[in-house]
């Protein structure tokens, strides 16, 4: 890799050459660009119901002058009880995305290879590249389901890490029991299996729970979950990793900054876990809206793979950037996909019923344009 110098400073060439992360547009920016006050923010898979009222109540006890607990003891204890996993195997992050970075920093050496899928979650590639790894992207199948044969074949070169998000971001489907078992049987002992379950709470009943599926495999693994989606705490940044082994968790802990999870995030996450009933009701409402939107999109003759998440990935059959601009002109933010081969796809979050109606009406106008 070429050396990179800026104003006499030699930069880390892996970091200097990273592609940008394709983040959803900020609401204030969208207001300015579109001239609309009421923005339907459907690009970042946030919870349209906000979060449990118990979270706001708990945050009243926040003391901003004190450092937060660097070990997140109360939150890890609550997660340990919920998941039936020793707290020593749990690492809490400033969002689960920080845990993706910590895994790469802990487990990669320059020249290592990392396997993931395409289309896929940007950070699974970006954090691997940042640590000097070579990234192998296995294309999803023609119907945009996971290509199990190809994923199994990719294990032949014994990558340092395989990252899979199931349910898939951006596509939506989840691995079923048989597919996950086939992949796990092919993962070599020297490969760290990372299952990113950011959308676990939105799956249907017969989807495997990654923690259970991995428990007795003997594979080194990490399962990632987050409070950003189902629990509605995206702005506070809190997610977690469950590692197969305490030493792996300790190394990930060394790979992050010590006070990575702020005090508000810790208080909010503990309170959110004390009101799972709120989360379940919210998720049920989102899933009902997801099916309503999927049916409306199918009735327009567009392809959108079946989703087990809080978003839909659809082929709008025209340039995704132009489609994004059309929606933005109506005050709606969606995410245009940019990965090669998927430039006519957009990802839309399942929002409130009113915002979803706005999206569907704007989609009909886009198709007529
Ligand atoms: C949203 C998301 C995350 C990151 O969520 P955080 O807000 O950082 O907890 C991780 N993985 C996938 C696949 C996601 O979609």
UniProtKB/TrEMBL annotation:
Pathway: Amino-acid biosynthesis; L-histidine biosynthesis; L-histidine from 5-phospho-alpha-D-ribose 1-diphosphate: step 7/9
Cofactor(s) the record lists: pyridoxal 5'-phosphate
Enzyme Commission (EC) number: 2.6.1.9
Keywords: Amino-acid biosynthesis, Aminotransferase, Histidine biosynthesis, Pyridoxal phosphate, Transferase
Domain of life: Bacteria
Sites bearing N6-(pyridoxal phosphate)lysine, chain numbering: 229
Any one GO MF annotation of this record: histidinol-phosphate transaminase activity
Domain Aminotransferase class I/classII large: 41-363
Protein family according to the UniProt entry: Belongs to the class-II pyridoxal-phosphate-dependent aminotransferase family. Histidinol-phosphate aminotransferase subfamily.
Oligomer and partners: Homodimer.
NCBIfam families recorded: hisC
Name of the protein this chain belongs to: Histidinol-phosphate aminotransferase
Classification lineage: Bacteria, Pseudomonadati, Pseudomonadota, Alphaproteobacteria, Hyphomicrobiales
């Amino acid at each position: 890799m070429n050396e990179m110098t800026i104003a006499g400073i030699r930069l880390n060439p892996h970091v200097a050459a990273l592609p940008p992360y394709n983040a959803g547009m900020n609401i204030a920016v969208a207001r300015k660009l579109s001239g609309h006050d009421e923005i339907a923010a459907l690009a970042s898979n946030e919870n349209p119901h906000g979060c449990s009222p118990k979270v706001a109540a708990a945050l009243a006890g926040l003391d901003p002058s004190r450092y937060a607990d660097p070990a997140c003891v109360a939150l890890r204890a609550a997660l340990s009880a919920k998941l039936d996993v020793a707290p020593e195997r749990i690492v809490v992050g400033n969002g689960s995305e920080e845990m993706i970075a910590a895994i790469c920093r802990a487990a990669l050496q320059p020249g290592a290879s990392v396997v993931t899928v395409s289309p896929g979650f940007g950070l699974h590639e970006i954090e691997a590249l940042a640590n000097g790894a070579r990234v192998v992207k296995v294309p999803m199948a023609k119907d945009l389901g996971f290509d199990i044969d190809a994923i199994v074949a990719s294990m032949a070169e014994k990558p340092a890490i395989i990252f899979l998000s199931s349910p898939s971001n951006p596509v939506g489907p989840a691995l079923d029991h048989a597919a996950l078992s086939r992949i796990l049987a092919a993962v070599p002992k020297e490969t760290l299996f990372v299952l990113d379950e950011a959308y676990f709470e939105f799956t249907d009943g017969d989807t495997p729970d990654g923690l259970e599926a991995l428990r007795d495999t003997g594979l080194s693994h990490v399962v990632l979950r987050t409070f950003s989606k189902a629990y509605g705490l995206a702005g506070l940044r809190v997610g977690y990793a469950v590692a197969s082994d305490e030493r792996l968790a300790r190394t990930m802990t060394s790979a992050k900054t010590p006070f990575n999870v702020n005090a508000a995030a810790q208080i909010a996450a503990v309170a959110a876990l004390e009101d799972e009933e709120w989360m379940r009701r919210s998720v049920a409402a989102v899933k009902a809206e997801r099916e309503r939107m999927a049916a409306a999109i199918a009735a327009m003759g567009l392809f959108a793979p079946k989703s087990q998440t809080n978003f839909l990935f659809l082929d709008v059959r025209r340039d995704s950037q132009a489609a994004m601009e059309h929606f933005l002109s109506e005050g709606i933010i969606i995410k245009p996909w940019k990965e090669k081969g998927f430039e006519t796809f957009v990802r839309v979050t399942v929002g409130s019923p009113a915002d979803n109606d706005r999206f569907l009406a704007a989609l009909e106008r886009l198709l007529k344009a």
